[in-house]
From TrEMBL:
Keywords: Signal, TPR repeat
Coiled coil (residue ranges): none
Span of the signal peptide: 1-18
InterPro entries, alphabetized: 6-blade_b-propeller_TolB-like (IPR011042), TPR-like_helical_dom_sf (IPR011990), TPR_rpt (IPR019734), WD40 (IPR011659)
Source organism: Chitinophaga horti
TPR repeats: 55-88
Organism superkingdom: Bacteria
Pfam families: PD40, TPR_16
Name of the molecule in the record: Tetratricopeptide repeat protein
């Protein structure tokens, strides 16, 4: 009788434990569906402490970690999910992508092949598989000198631009001591534009060591480049990574212009050659009013303004903005006749594509897709056009070393001509690389990468031979 009672109590305990785990899963699922991935992660972890055999929960946890681009831990949990549910073909593609993001290219090729065996035709997967079968084409580090910059912080810094002799960049470092508005995807402050007027303070330094992440105390560590804003009510969280960087005078890096600030994201930006017109990405907020699509998502839009009488005036919406899709990442050609931008508008080849409009006497022409030489079924973004007529952009669909890779393509009469070329290693890495800016010499400049955990700014110097665009530049002409 006593053993029966003990067995009955044990069954009740197990049932209660399972019920508690299920409540945790339901709570986490609500956060997951609302795209609050960082909120969902610790709840899924608590659920797995109570029931570690739930393959679906393991997969959703892995998905959350992938969404906020904590690649090492995402790979750890995807590996568990694959082992627990080997028949789940949906896991092959993200597992291959994560293996590549962690530089395990040989294993990534195997899983891309498994995905292709199941999916058949997949242009993006085929491109990456081809890359990993011919890695020697991408790994010539002798042509580039790459350096970390001292203006980086534990927050995100990316997409630099020139303005009035100074450097403009995008960052989610807090605008004030207490930042009330946060991006719920990963609970970080919204993006703003910052300026370094005196570029002499910008120095190259050694990059920080990669931070150790303890999953038992996990709260999320990576702040991605956000594309859309959802809800903004989540409390702010601890943000700084454990980095020790040389001090930069606080007054040397300031908000670019309060007139251009809103409650949500600002940047990236592009200026005309005179520096008196700005085109900028920002969330769908105009004259204090916030717009959303049918699902409640606040999309990106492009706005322009003119600098006169000491400030930015005539704030205007780009005519092809929409509440139902995003339009952002503007890039003007040197003559100002074409505006390239990124959008997931209908009619594209996949995710987000690069489009362009021609300047007409009565405004901008209708958007034209930049075509298959640039766009894929993946995502193309962060266009930048150098003064010599080269379009730099990033893609996660053309094949590369993992995540977003930087490509370039020559423009002829401001339109794409020829094939796009991958800049190769070490400008590109297994993580996201994007947001190029060139100096006047054309062979030195800056770019952005999250290879050290958060988005950071890097200096690059091409030392030859054979620039990827086909231009041969003598090393003696390269600014050092």
């Amino acid at each position: 009788m006593k053993s029966c009672t003990q067995l009955f109590l044990l069954i009740l305990l197990l049932v209660a434990h399972a019920a508690t785990a299920q409540k945790e899963v339901e709570k986490a699922d609500r956060e997951y569906v609302a795209l609050r991935y960082r909120n969902a992660i610790p709840i899924y972890l608590r659920a797995l402490e109570k029931d570690s055999s739930d393959a679906e929960v393991v997969t959703k946890l892995a998905d959350c970690l992938y969404k906020i681009r904590d690649y090492p831990n995402a790979l750890y949990w995807y590996a568990k999910a694959v082992k627990m549910d080997p028949s789940n073909t949906r896991l092959a593609l993200p597992y291959a992508q994560l293996l590549a993001a962690n530089s395990e290219y040989g294993k990534a090729a195997i899983w891309y092949e498994k995905h292709l065996d199941e999916a058949g035709s997949d242009e993006t997967a085929r491109n990456f598989l081809d890359t990993y079968m011919h890695l020697d084409r991408f790994m010539d580090s002798s042509r580039w000198d790459i350096r970390f910059l001292n203006i980086n912080t534990g927050y995100d810094e990316f997409s630099p631009s020139w303005f009035d002799g100074g450097l403009i960049f995008v960052s989610n470092r807090p605008r004030t001591v207490v930042s009330k508005n946060t991006f719920e995807w990963d609970r970080t402050p919204f993006l703003s534009l910052y300026q370094v007027a005196d570029t002499s303070i910008v120095k190259t330094v050694d990059p920080p060591a990669a931070p150790h992440i303890d999953m038992d105390k996990y709260q999320g560590v990576y702040r991605p480049t956000p594309n859309d804003s959802r809800r903004v009510s989540a409390p702010a969280a601890e943000l700084r990574l454990p980095m020790e960087l040389p001090p930069v005078p606080k007054e040397s890096v300031v908000l670019f212009n309060k007139q251009l600030e809103s409650r949500f994201h600002e940047g990236p930006v592009s200026f005309n050659s005179r520096g008196d017109t700005i085109f900028m990405s920002r969330n769908n907020v105009f004259k204090g009013k916030s717009g959303k699509d049918k699902k409640g998502v606040n999309r990106l839009k492009i706005y322009s303004a003119i600098f006169r009488y000491g400030d930015w005036k005539d704030f205007t919406e780009f005519p092809y903005n929409s509440d139902e899709y995003s339009v952002g990442h503007p890039a003007l050609t040197a003559d100002g006749d074409f505006l390239y931008f990124v959008s997931d508008m209908p009619g594209g080849r996949g995710g987000s594509d690069i489009w362009y409009c021609r300047k007409m006497s009565n405004g901008w022409s209708a958007p034209v897709n930049a075509g298959p030489a640039i766009n894929t079924k993946g995502n193309e973004m962060f266009p930048y056009i150098s003064k010599d007529g080269t379009l730099y952009f990033s893609s996660d669909g053309k094949g590369g070393l993992g995540g977003l890779d930087i490509f370039l393509i020559r423009l002829q009469d401001d339109l794409p001509a020829g094939k796009a070329a991958n800049l190769g290693y070490p400008v590109n890495s297994s993580r996201d690389d994007f947001g190029v800016l060139l100096n006047k010499d054309g062979y030195t400049g800056y770019f952005s990468s999250n290879r050290c955990g958060s988005d950071d700014l890097y200096y690059f110097r091409f030392v030859g031979p054979g620039y990827p665009s086909g231009i041969v530049t003598p090393v003696t002409q390269v600014a050092r």
